[in-house]
Amino acid sequence: MTAPPLEAPDGYEISTDPARLDADLVHRWLSTDAYWSVGLPRAQYERAVAGSLNFGLYETGSGRQAAYARVVTDHATFAWLCDVYVARDDRGKGLGTALVEAIADHLASCGLPRVTLATKDAHGVYEKIGFRPLAAPEQWMTMGLMDPGPLGI
């Protein structure tokens, strides 16, 4: 059974097919230009992709990948949205917002009670889609086995 197409801006399409990902490009974006994963080793990136639901946003005509995001989820109780990245030349066109809206719509069918994310600087983008700060942050904990702490916050 094929999943219905995801809503995308005119001239673009969104796919969850991992075979469509431009792995070299996405790894370069994340390992060299994304503050949360600079220096990400290729093997670790590949494990992350293999264990996640991946979303690519592509130009319809050329197939060029313009954005990427992934979701770590059990499809039943929890999802973590991460690695949302829009190519520098494609920023300012609403593609990141459109991609996250499509992801939220896709996940809605799972009946998840929560989707979480962490961001240093894009709160406004995610608030437009419905994300809010934690209502009870005192109930949440983290264990950063390799976490040096907040990223310059």
Helix content range of the residues, please? 25-40%
General shape: globular
Name the average pLDDT: 90
Structural classification: alpha+beta
Total helical elements: 4
In whole angstroms, how far apart are the ends?
45 Å
Query: What strand order characterises the main sheet?
Result: 1-2-3-4-5
Low-confidence stretches: none
* Run of helices and strands: EHHEEEHEH
Please report which band the strand proportion falls in: under 5%, 5-15%, 15-25%, 25-35%, 35-45% or over 45%: 15-25%
Rg, rounded, reads 15 Å
Characterize the main sheet. 5 strands, mixed
Number of strands: 5
Structural account:
The chain is α+β, with helices and mostly antiparallel strands. The protein is 27% helix and 20% strand. It contains four helices and five strands; from the N terminus they run βααβββαβα. A five-stranded mixed sheet has the order 1-2-3-4-5. Strand 3 and strand 4 form a beta hairpin. Helix 3 packs across helix 4. The model has no long low-confidence stretch (mean pLDDT 90).
